[in-house]
Amino acid sequence: MSRKTKIILSVIAITVLLLGGLGWMTVYYSNLPENLSQHETIVLGQSELVPGSTAALRVAVRDSSDAAPLAGATVNVMLQPDGGGTAVPVFNGTTNDLGTADISFEVPDTEEDSYTLVVETESELGSDKLERTVTLDRDYRILLTSDKPLYQPGQLIHLRALALSTFDLAPAAGQELQISIADGKGNTVFRDTISTSDYGVAATDFQLANEVNTGPYKISAQLGNTSSEMTVTVERYVLPKFAVNLTTEKPYYLPGEIVRGTLSANYFFGKTVSEGEVLLEGFTFDFERVDVFTTQGITDAQGNYSFEFQLPEYIAG
After folding, report:
1. Contact present, 237 and 152 (Cβ < 8 Å)
2. How is the beta sheet containing 215-223 ordered, strand by strand?
3. What is the CATH number of domain 41-136?
């Protein structure tokens, strides 16, 4: 093929490409709408909502050509369940002089996990319809407790859970709560699903066999995407041969007051426990243990130990 022939073929190929591109531009232009709407809608808000709470969002309507606000534009907002069902209107109104509408509405407290937020606007320049998926986020706080921290094989473990909504601390009533227990070697030895009461409380028992793996037992409570854990110890032990009695000056105290009292220790056969080491710890529960005080000492010849401590100014629970 001569050089002249190559040049001619190159010119023809370029011409074909140009004509093809021009044809595509002509088709694309012919498919555009004759009048592009200058009506533009902007929605500002949350993508995660809490059931039973008040949600807020802002809708702005403006002229897309110069971003000028469009006052008096109609705004309709609806929630459409993704699982099917009728859309629920949550707002009907118009934009203010700034072209915005500040909207608040009650989030449905249903079993639905997600909704489609539908926003429709209309002005003299046109109309718009925007759809956005929003999810319902259910967060809880779980307080998991047992009747004691130490058990022997063959004993019964009593468990109790209190579940509250993180948003407003309302009881998580009628919810399915999963309880599981793993022994000292990590084996799951107990699993139960129980429903919470109207007060968000659920309780169950676990019977330890006479021959079990000893060590720390991890107890877990699961509700939705929230979990809580605690640990109890299972081991064989010898019960103490003495009794401990604790008395205070008053039956109850207010935050900030000074607590004074006496601990007395006596063997079951009547002799006092003298020179015994004493450790006193005080704590409260606010979904987890909160230490309030610690004091320690030695009992006297009569088996008594006098103590004194000040309560904090604020005590949760």
Report:
1. yes
2. 150-151, 226-234, 215-223, 176-182, 188-195
3. 2.60.40.1930
